[in-house]
C-alpha cells in the first residue's frame, strides 16, 4: 500500500509545505550565512507579527498583510542603511524589538479578537490548510525562480561588492532584491516554524552544509538536502512524541548541524 495515499491530509500538507520551504531556504539561507545577515532575518521575522496585527485590524488576508509588512520593512531597512545614520546592528535591533512590541500592543488593543499567539510565535505546521499550502507553494516557487535568475549577480556582490560595482552591476538593487526574497520567504513560512524560529531554518542547514561544501552550488544543494532531512525528522518527532512541529524541525536541524561538525572534512 502506498504510504502517501494513506497519509492523513493534514500531515501530507505539512510535509509538502515543509519540504518546499527547505528546498527554497537552502540556497537563500546560504547568502544569509555568507553575507552575515542573520540579524536582518531576525528583524524581518519579528516584524511579521506586526503584519499579523495589522491584517486583523484591517480585516485583510493575513498572508497578504504579513508579506506586505515584511517587504515594506525590507525597503525601509535598505533606505535607512543607505543614509548611514546608525550602525546596521543598532538599527536592526531597534526595528526588531519595536515592530514585535508594536504588534503585540496592537493585538492587545484589538477588541473581540482572539488568536493563538503561540501558533504565530512558534508555528503550527500540522494545522496548515490546502489554501495555505497553495499560497506557500506559489510564493516559494516565485522566490526560487528569481533566486536562480539572480544567482550569479548575488554571488558577485557577495564575493567582492566593490569589484561588482566597478564592473557595472547595480549593487544596491541586487542587495534590495535579496532582502525582498528573504522577506517573502519569512512571510510565507511564518505558519510553519513561527516568527521566532524562521531564521533558524534559513541559517542552520546552510551553516551545516558550509563545512563540507567546496563550491557555492554544493553548499546551496547541501543546505536544501539537510533542510529536507530536518523537516522529515521534525515531523516524525512531532507525530510520534506529540511535540510542536516547528520547534521539532529546528531541533532536528540543530542535530544535523552537530553531526556536520563532528564528521571530519574531506581532504
From TrEMBL:
Subcellular localization(s) per the UniProt record: Cell membrane
Main location: membrane
Mode of membrane association: Multi-pass membrane protein
InterPro entries, A to Z: ABC_BtuC-like, ABC_TroCD
Signal peptide region: none
One Pfam family matching this protein: ABC-3
TM region(s), chain numbering: 12-34, 46-79, 91-113, 133-152, 172-198, 219-239, 245-263
Keywords in alphabetical order: Cell membrane, Ion transport, Membrane, Transmembrane, Transmembrane helix, Transport, Zinc, Zinc transport
KW Transmembrane helix (keyword) present: yes
Coiled-coil region(s): none
Family: Belongs to the ABC-3 integral membrane protein family.
Role played: Involved in the high-affinity zinc uptake transport system.
PANTHER family found in the cross-reference section: ABC-TRANSPORTER METAL-BINDING PROTEIN, HIGH-AFFINITY ZINC UPTAKE SYSTEM MEMBRANE PROTEIN ZNUB
Descriptive protein name: High-affinity zinc uptake system membrane protein ZnuB
Organism expressing this protein natively: Halopseudomonas salina
Amino acid at each position: 500500500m502506498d504510504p502517501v495515499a494513506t497519509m492523513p491530509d493534514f500531515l501530507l500538507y505539512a510535509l509538502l509545505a515543509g519540504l518546499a520551504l527547505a528546498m527554497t531556504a537552502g540556497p537563500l539561507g546560504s547568502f544569509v550565512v555568507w553575507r552575515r545577515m542573520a540579524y536582518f532575518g531576525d528583524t524581518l521575522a519579528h516584524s511579521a507579527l506586526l503584519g499579523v496585527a495589522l491584517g486583523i485590524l484591517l480585516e485583510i488576508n493575513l498572508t497578504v498583510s504579513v508579506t506586505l509588512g515584511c517587504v515594506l520593512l525590507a525597503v525601509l531597512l535598505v533606505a535607512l542603511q543607505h543614509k548611514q545614520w546608525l550602525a546596521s546592528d543598532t538599527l536592526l535591533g531597534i526595528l526588531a524589538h519595536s515592530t514585535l512590541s508594536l504588534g503585540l500592543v496592537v493585538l492587545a488593543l484589538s477588541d473581540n479578537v482572539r488568536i493563538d499567539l503561540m501558533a504565530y510565535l512558534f508555528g503550527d505546521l500540522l494545522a496548515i490548510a490546502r489554501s495555505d499550502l497553495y499560497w506557500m507553494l506559489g510564493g516559494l516557487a516565485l522566490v526560487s525562480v528569481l533566486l536562480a535568475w539572480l544567482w550569479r549577480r548575488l554571488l558577485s556582490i557577495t564575493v567582492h561588492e566593490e569589484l561588482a560595482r566597478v564592473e557595472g552591476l547595480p549593487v544596491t538593487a541586487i542587495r534590495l532584491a535579496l532582502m525582498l526574497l528573504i522577506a517573502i520567504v519569512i512571510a510565507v513560512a511564518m505558519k510553519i516554524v513561527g516568527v521566532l524560529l524562521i531564521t533558524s531554518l534559513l541559517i542552520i542547514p546552510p551553516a551545516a552544509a558550509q563545512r563540507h561544501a567546496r563550491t557555492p552550488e554544493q553548499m546551496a544543494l547541501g543546505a536544501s538536502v539537510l533542510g529536507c532531512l530536518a523537516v522529515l525528522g521534525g515531523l516524525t518527532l512531532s507525530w510520534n512524541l506529540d511535540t510542536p512541529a516547528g520547534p521539532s524541525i529546528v531541533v532536528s536541524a540543530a542535530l544535523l548541524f552537530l553531526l556536520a561538525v563532528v564528521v571530519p572534512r574531506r581532504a
